[in-house]
Amino acid sequence: MARPIPQRPPPPSTLETVRNILTSIKYDAFARGVGLLFLAAAYSSICHLTLSPVYGGTAADFAHRPGMLAAGIAGYFLKDRIQRCLGRRAAHFIPVLAFWIPTIQYFLFKFSSSLGNPAGPVVTDVLTYYPLLLLSVAVSVKIIQYATDLRARYGELAEEHVPFVGSYVLFLIGEKVANFFISKTIGFITRSGFQLLLAALYSITVPSKLLLLALPSLLFSFTANVHMPFGRPTAVLNSTLQEHGYTLIERRESVTGYISILENAKDGYVALRCDHSLLGGEWKNTGRNYNPAVKDPIYAVFAMLEAVRLVKPEGGEHRRPDEDSNALVIGLGIGTTPGALIAHGIDTTVVEIDPVVHQFAQEYFHFPKNHTAVIQDAVKFVKKATSKPAHPKYDYIVHDVFTGGAEPIELFTVEFLEGLKSLLKDDGAIAINYAGDISLYPAKLVTRTVRSVFPTCRIFREDPETDNPKHKRDTEDPDSPVPDFTNMVIFCKKTTSSPLEFRAPTPEDYLGSKSRELYLMPQHEIDASVFDKVSKGEKRILHAKHMPDIHTFLTRGAVEHWEIMRTVLPAEVWESW
């Protein structure tokens, strides 16, 4: 009689496989490995924040993610070699390095002008964050491999590939969680405070006697590192600034960046800083017997934006009286333009995303309180406002958004501008400020997009076109455009029956301000046809779906802005944020 053929047991189901893995995990070690990945992911966002006041947000982000990817991959493939060379000390060095990063950054920032931009952020990352990330990945993956013991159950292939994919997924999750937490707590905790917090969490995750090596950096942070929000470092900061003629009035962290108020007593002005840019400023020393209804701005463009009131309506020289008009202003700054509109008696609504900017404008720049304030992202505001069947309409709209060295490009899409058009009265006028290199693709794209939505426009620049020796054509590419960074204001109306014209200003339009006598009436017009040519690979107009492609083109303009800002304020002022 034949014997029955032995049957192999059926392979475990996926659910059983997962259950087997979960029951075999050493959870203490696994939590430590995951914690290291989460902390490294969180430090990515904080590192970007600490670079932004010195190099600007766009430039600081230029090579950050590719470098981060390279450091992470290097950490993964060097994990065995690192373990052979350093053993357990590899983990013990991580919190020490985390505590030293703020001090290393402090000294590297002093060389920001020599390093340049965008090389400066790359060098700083290479000497601070990338080593931290490399060690964190190398150590965390080895810990996760030990905690899961995949080799014993599923072989060497599973031991190598599962932690590789899993650590990458965990890192991405950690980044998203950290970004959400930072966005909700920035202001309560400063970016430098986050650095110390993460270093402390690193030391809890991988405790080490080597932490004694971090004591010099901690001592420096609490006594001399001007980026730290403590009493002694703030006193050191003001001492440094006063050597260059400036005084720090107040500083605050907020959703759009590092916000501070700086006073220059010698030249007599107060300015509002956001990261590596100035959002505006006003002159203080106005002289005897000179008391304008509104302060004179340090930038002419803010007076020129007020010329939106001077745009002639169809078939008339003057619009309805100011007291019967209303205005919508997207972006506050120090409140120069909306403040003037309010002074004329216009019912003004201001949409500003940053509550600190709104607070500082009222406390330090005489921005009046008799306005409607909407502290909200402008995209959300416009979408919500236009969704109502009987939504409000405005006589004037001023679009003036610029922060941290780059335009928020999402506020120049067809979709957003169409929303503004629906909020504008049929005989209304809109003024759109674009600050950037108008010889580059983003400026041309924005201009074409604006003109595709608003049929009748005229374009003016803040200053006359000059051959600036600091902005020369790239000698390696003789066909490249000459850099031309300026504020460009596009005035538009909805109708097409007649060209856009300005009425002649009257003394009442100047509000007693000499600055407005000089700059209210737009002077330096740009021929719109120079923006019409669409080069190969360019979009004709900007849609929301194109934004990921456009961000890569913003770095050059941001670097040019960085170079200009270094001539406006001394490098030491930007570095000592």
Helix content: 40-55%
At the fold tier of CATH, the topology name of the largest domain is Rossmann fold
| Count of domain modules | 2
Report the CATH architecture of the largest domain: 3-Layer(aba) Sandwich
Distance N terminus to C terminus?
A: 91 Å
Oligomer: single chain
Which regions have little confidence, pLDDT < 50, spanning 5+ residues? 467-471
Report the sheet with the most strands, covering strand number, pairing sense and barrel closure.
8 strands, mixed
Offer a quick outline of the entry.
The protein is built from 25 helices and twelve strands.
Question: How would you characterize this protein structure?
Answer:
44% of the residues are buried. The chain folds into two domains: 16-223, Growth Hormone, Chain: A (Up-down Bundle); 299-575, 3-Layer(aba) Sandwich (Rossmann fold). By secondary structure, the protein is an alpha/beta fold. The strands form two sheets. The protein has an eight-stranded mixed sheet with strand order 7-6-5-8-9-11-10-12, sandwiched between helices. It has a four-stranded antiparallel sheet with strand order 1-2-3-4, sandwiched between helices. The N and C termini lie far apart (91 Å). α19 (414-423) links the parallel β8 and β9 (424-437). Helix content is 49%, strand content 15%.
